[in-house]
Design brief:
The chain is of the alpha/beta class. It has helices spanning about 15-25, 25-35, 65, 85-95, 105-120, 135-145, 160-170, 175-185, 195, 200-215, 230-240, 300-320; strands spanning about 5-10, 35-45, 60, 75, 100, 125, 150-155, 225, 245-255, 255-265, 280-285, 290-300. Helix 5 (about 105-120) packs parallel to helix 10 and helix 7 (about 160-170) crosses helix 8 (about 175-185). Mean pLDDT is about 90; it is low at about 320-325.
Length: about 325
């Protein structure tokens, strides 16, 4: 029986999640594809760190050994930073591989170029995992845009900041203590700047803008305010008034262009985002026909993000059944 041959670039939390889903769901995947899915190679920074993970798994720190694998069909990228991720995916597409990424930073910078390149080479680029973790927002928008004109998106796009604000409200923790708890539980990095200053959510906003409006706002004109100035006293005062502070990203299409704002916002109980707690994400989409729809779910973590990647794998072959996979 033929197989779909997959390589994974990056073997941290998300990369290992992809590996485990493929390893433990072969029966389901085989029924979907009519063939098994094989992980034929994994790119890592430090081979010794992963030497005991699976003795049968080909692990290398040399990308040339990955891209030179025979009959390679799909390259899944779960790294960080713009480079070398962008260059690696370009090479994969030029080899006529499907490309799937969870790298929001890279894709906010180079998404349009990769999508155009894939079109030219007859492959696909999946990027559901760049926004919203396990929430299928990209696929939803792509389907919604068939008839609806989306004029606004707003949401909670970062689970770490939402967790911190939730703990500050529920337990009266200071920002510092809530952040320390998030780090202890693995929700925040040792350097939490990308989360608490809003950079992570910012890049997700730019990807959503590209999907919905076909362009991004000028990055210099985007309002980006983090949560470091939110105090427990403010949160408790708002709680008495039956409103809550949420870190909300908003994109609005206007006659003058795209207005993009990311900042702490006070929301009432009637707002769907009021009830989003912990590490959950939620995104409200406003279409001129459908009105407002809201999607919520786990915004981060090993299996929610890896699940989005595997769904992209399914969509890749649903979109391009004419692409012949390896024997």
């Amino acid at each position: 029986m033929s197989a779909i041959h997959v390589a994974i670039l990056g073997f941290g939390t998300v990369g290992k999640g992809v590996y485990e889903i493929i390893r433990t769901n072969q029966e389901r995947l085989t029924s979907l594809f009519g063939k098994e899915v094989k992980i034929v190679g994994v790119l890592v920074k430090n081979i010794e760190k992963h030497a005991d993970y699976d003795k049968k798994l080909f692990i290398t720190d040399n990308f040339e050994e990955i891209i030179s694998l025979p009959n390679l069909d799909v390259v899944i990228e779960a790294m960080v930073g713009v480079e070398p991720s962008y260059t690696y995916l370009k090479q994969a597409i030029e080899k006529r591989c499907h490309a799937i990424t969870a790298n929001k930073f890279m894709f906010a910078h180079h998404g349009p170029e990769l999508l155009e390149l894939a079109k030219n080479f007859g492959t696909t680029v999946g990027y559901e995992a760049t926004v919203g973790g396990g929430i299928p927002i990209i696929q939803t928008l792509n389907k919604l845009l068939n008839i609806n004109q989306v004029f606004k998106i707003e949401g909670i796009l970062n689970g770490t900041t939402n967790f911190i604000l939730t703990k500050m409200r529920e337990e009266g923790l200071s920002f510092t203590d809530a952040l320390a708890l998030a780090q202890q539980l693995g929700y925040a990095e040792a350097d939490p700047t990308n989360d608490v200053e809003g950079f992570d959510a910012f890049y997700k906003m730019m990807i959503l803008s590209q999907v919905c409006f076909g362009e991004q706002p000028d990055w210099k004109n985007v309002t980006r305010v983090g949560i470091t100035e939110v105090t427990p006293e403010k949160i408790q005062q708002y709680e008495k008034e039956n409103v809550r502070i949420k870190h909300i990203a908003s994109l609005t299409k206007t006659d003058e262009g795209i207005e993009a704002v990311l900042k702490p916002v006070v929301v009432p109980p009637t707002d769907p985002l009021y009830h989003i707690e912990g590490v959950e994400n939620a995104i409200s989409v406003y279409g001129h026909i459908v009105g407002r729809i809201c999607l919520s779910g786990p915004g981060a973590g090993m299996f929610p993000t890896a699940s989005a990647i595997i769904e992209d794998l399914v969509h890749a072959y649903a979109k391009s059944p004419a692409i012949v996979t390896s024997a």
